[in-house]
Amino acid sequence: MRNNRRRKRRANLEDEESSSCSTAKKTKSSDDDRLVASSFRLLNEKFYVTKSFEMQKILEQNPELLDLYIMGFKKQAEQWPVKPVEEIIKILMKSDPNLEVADMGCGEAMIAKQVKQKVHSFDFIALDPIITACDISHVPLPNTSMDVVIFCLSLMGPNIHEFFIEASRILKLGGHIYIAEVESRIVSIPQFIRSIKTFGLGLVSHRELSSYFHFFDFVKLSDQPNKDLVEIFLKPCFYKKR
């Protein structure tokens, strides 16, 4: 009887120890998630208010910040009903495999890794050998060399118009610009479209990707942008303080 009681006590102690370890692991995981989410929010807000060339300098000096941003971005994307990058991949998979593509603000270069076209992937920091680290307002590509230019959730900062000047420079006449953007950032869709058109572009199509995002397809109609370029305004995403 005594031996049975001892065995039961030992088993109970082992169960309690196992439960404590499990709770500690869950607590640490929860703390890590909160740290990543908090870092992502702070960095995201920084992206919205900082010009791209300044942001590049910050990330070059602190490359680990982009790793934190990507981790937070992935966590957030898990909650989305649709992922814009996957929609763009679907379009390219149905397109001519000989097209040449520039992915501006590519993150982990998901597009380049999944499509047949030659994709030039650009971002502030090269998280993968196939990525070229640069400010996307100045990419190392020749004039009129691209068939498609992509901005997938990458129109961030107060110098967005410079991204479109560069996109128009590298895009062939008749080439396309695909834009995926958060619905809440676009104050007026007609105004947004009008401002993009001033860069020598015409609207091919516009559609909603669920209630979260908008997708735009523009085509290059002219090598000469309008003399009076319109500033492109997108609302920054600021998070409620917790």
From TrEMBL:
<keyword id="KW-0949">S-adenosyl-L-methionine</keyword>
<keyword id="KW-0808">Transferase</keyword>
<feature type="compositionally biased region" description="Basic residues">
    <location>
        <begin position="1"/>
        <end position="10"/>
    </location>
</feature>
<dbReference type="Pfam" id="PF05148">
    <property type="entry name" value="Methyltransf_8"/>
</dbReference>
<keyword id="KW-0539">Nucleus</keyword>
<keyword id="KW-0698">rRNA processing</keyword>
<dbReference type="GO" id="GO:0032259">
    <property type="term" value="P:methylation"/>
</dbReference>
<protein>
    <recommendedName>
        <fullName>Ribosomal RNA-processing protein 8</fullName>
        <ecNumber>2.1.1.-</ecNumber>
    </recommendedName>
</protein>
<dbReference type="InterPro" id="IPR042036">
    <property type="entry name" value="RRP8_N"/>
</dbReference>
<comment type="similarity">
    <text>Belongs to the methyltransferase superfamily. RRP8 family.</text>
</comment>
<comment type="function">
    <text>Probable methyltransferase required to silence rDNA.</text>
</comment>
<dbReference type="InterPro" id="IPR029063">
    <property type="entry name" value="SAM-dependent_MTases_sf"/>
</dbReference>
<keyword id="KW-0489">Methyltransferase</keyword>
<dbReference type="GO" id="GO:0005730">
    <property type="term" value="C:nucleolus"/>
</dbReference>
<feature type="region of interest" description="Disordered">
    <location>
        <begin position="1"/>
        <end position="28"/>
    </location>
</feature>
<dbReference type="GO" id="GO:0008168">
    <property type="term" value="F:methyltransferase activity"/>
</dbReference>
<dbReference type="InterPro" id="IPR007823">
    <property type="entry name" value="RRP8"/>
</dbReference>
<dbReference type="GO" id="GO:0006364">
    <property type="term" value="P:rRNA processing"/>
</dbReference>
